[in-house]
Amino acid sequence: MIFSLAGKRVYVAGHRGMVGGAVVRRLATEQCEVVTAGRDVLDLIDQAQVRQWMAHKQPQVMVVAAAKVGGILANSTYPADFLYNNLMIEANLIEAAHQAGVEKVLFLGSSCIYPQLAPQPIREESLLTGPLEPTNEWYAIAKIAGIKLCQAYRAQYGRDYISAMPTNLYGPGDNFDLQSSHVMPALIRKAHEAKLAGRDSFEIWGSGTPLREFMHVDDLADACVFLLKAYSDPMPINIGFGSDVTIGELAELVAKVVGFTGIVTRDATKPDGTPRKLMDSARLHAMGWAPRIALEAGIADAYQHFLAANAG
Ligand code: GFB
């Protein structure tokens, strides 16, 4: 381990989101102080506010888990929101961190930064080698800019700012809104509601053939803490699960976990997105980190949190 969190003040930007919330929970087991700021006190789009807040709080470490995120439909419907908000959030945070002397920054991107037809599994070297998937290129461009910010502050100022690219995530605190969510929470909700209503089917978007790799957010949070301590390199590092499933297979698995016994139908008018984005996480695994939460167990956990959040 090359960086110690002991006694450090760690700012987690985006703590009310699924990823930031998981990182805060994980950091509770470290000997560090966690600081956060809700949107009511700190608007991350506002450069002056971010600078003032950072100068006042003086964190030594920052995790950038704040982002405007959404599923395939939200990404393609609100391109300006996804590009502008994410560019502003990361630029404001990283520049303010540098100004305030923050020692270590972990910036979180996404597997969609890689070219639409990158060789699978996708290695970090694939970045910027081909055209992006059109359904999420706005978000991807913003996240690529975030990687470049970390690299630029490293190169120009010697800052230990790193970036990591998680695969598709799910878990407690996810967004279950059917229009804006990712596929996992959408399928959990659809299967649950179909079961409750006694329907004999629920519908998934697209052909069901795209392949996706899923990781429980608690595994991701563990990887983040590991990387804060052990990683210092300009190159982004992949955080993947190691295997993928088709969306059709995922729907069947979710139905099994939820206890829905009907059939799954397909809405071919909805987009498939990229055919496959399995990441090569060999660099991370070679450092000694591996995920622990198997897909079915992770879905069961996410379903329990969904039930708890919707009780009463
Ligand atoms: O998770 P998802 O919205 O985003 O969709 P991406 C994954 C796949 O699931 C697509 C299919 O092929 C969808 O068509 N799908 C099936 C559904 N049923 C549903 C449904 O009810 N809801 C949703 N949302 N999808 C996102 C990017 O891409 O991945 C973001 O848009 C981000 O930028 C994120 O990178 C990790 O995996 O296609």
Q: What do you see in this structure?
A:
The protein is of the alpha/beta class. Helix content is 42%, strand content 15%. It is built from ten helices and twelve strands. It has helices at residues 18-27, 47-57, 72-77, 79-100, 137-157, 183-197, 217-230, 247-258, 282-286, 295-310; strands at residues 9-13, 33-35, 61-64, 104-108, 160-166, 168-170, 201-205, 211-212, 214-216, 237-239, 245-246, 263-267. It has a six-stranded parallel sheet with strand order 2-1-3-4-5-10, with helices on both faces. A two-stranded parallel sheet has the order 6-9. The termini are far apart. The model has no long low-confidence stretch (mean pLDDT 97).
Secondary structure layout:
Blueprint (H helix, E strand, L loop, with lengths): L8 E5 L4 H10 L5 E3 L11 H11 L3 E4 L7 H6 L1 H22 L3 E5 L28 H21 L2 E7 L1 E3 L12 H15 L3 E5 L5 E2 L1 E3 H14 L6 E3 L5 E2 H12 L4 E5 L14 H5 L8 H16 L2
Parallel strand pairs: 1-2, 1-3, 3-4, 4-5, 5-10, 6-9, 7-12
Antiparallel strand pairs: 8-11
Bound molecules: guanosine-5'-diphosphate-beta-L-fucopyranose.
Which properties best describe this structure?
312 residues, alpha/beta, six-stranded parallel beta sheet, 42% helix, binds guanosine-5'-diphosphate-beta-L-fucopyranose
